[in-house]
Amino acid sequence: MAKKEVPDLTTPEWDKIFKPLLFDLSRQKCVLLLGPEVARADGHSLREVLREQLIKHHQDDIAYFHDRDNLFLFHNRASKSEVQRTISLFYEETKPEPGTYEKLAALPFLMTVSITPDHFLFDAYPKDARADFAFFNHIGQNDEDVVDSWERDRPLVYNLCGSYREDASLVLDYDDLFQLLKNTMGTPGLPKKVRRALGEARSFFFLGFDFDKWYTQLLLRLLTEDNTPMHIALSTQYGDKANQAFLLKQFNIKFVVEGDAFLDELCRRWEEHLNKDGGGAEKLDKHLVLRLLQEGKTGRALEVLLKILTSPEDKEMATMVSNWYHKWESDTKAGTEDSRNLDTLYNRVVKNINDLATNLPD
Length: 362
Fold this sequence. Notes:
The chain has helices spanning about 10-25, 45-55, 75-95, 100-105, 120-125, 145-150, 175-185, 190-200, 215-220, 240-250, 260-275, 285-295, 300-310, 310-335, 340-360; strands at about 30-35, 40, 45, 60-65, 70-75, 110-115, 130-135, 155-160, 205, 230-235, 255. Helix content is about 50%, strand content about 10%. It starts with 11 loop residues before the first helix and ends with a helix. The protein folds into three domains: about 15-35 and about 100-165 and about 175-275, 3-Layer(aba) Sandwich (Rossmann fold); about 40-95; about 285-360, no CATH class. The protein is built from 15 helices and eleven strands. Helix 13 (about 300-310) runs parallel beside helix 15 (about 340-360) and helix 14 runs antiparallel to helix 15 (about 340-360). The chain is an alpha/beta fold. The strands form three sheets. Strands 7-8-6-1-9-10-11 form a seven-stranded parallel sheet, sandwiched between helices.
């Protein structure tokens, strides 16, 4: 078989896609949407591998598998529980092929929304990236505290369809799907910060989706806002030509078939953007601190403030504020402190950062 020719992605024609995408990445207005066809092992989709294992080893538990919707019908609740545990164990023990997730983690997406229950992307982030992880549980308690404490100086990986570490959160049958639709579209709905990030995004980057499946239609519904963002889809399937034409017209989706090559070129261009004349570096001054505060990036504002202060008294005060901030962050995640006390502490942190920065010379 002849080797497929890789297109030249450095041409001016491709610049029309890459340049606005890089621009949105640089200003934290690009959201990554991660589908089930991304994770692979030995050249095979992990979704397919898992499905074959379930059908083979759980014949007594599974009454039917609906291929189009990728949903099961179970004989009873006990059967469903057995399959849930098998899936959780599968994701606990299985590692995807290296490369793709590491490349994605190197790009500054504002947020990632994944419709798979794995933690592969979250695990690919370097420890010093301080990435956050949360998931939507269609039948139980959601990670509101994690999302509430998330600031945009840290990546957020948000699993829309549950986490393998919480068996009951997995979306496996139509009952799960109906609960998910009801709770994401109605009450309680997605967390406020997730909805805001989706509403403010100017680019959506689809990777590994089948646009005929219910989960893609759900995402497209959730992404329907007043703004008109750019949608780019890699490594996707979209059904017949009529469906592709509809998606192109209705949702402004650009389908790029050269998935691996496109992602490599995007990473290369982002690295070039960071290194070009110091283009990725921000001037560390009081104005940056105040802007970060205004954008809600309190942790990053505090980091910059600590670097630019010169007065020993101011440094001592900023160190104390840093301790308050980390206490607020820790208590928020633990969920052990009254929310009113947490709000008071957070407001004190913001006020002191603002005062210290404002009093600095221009």
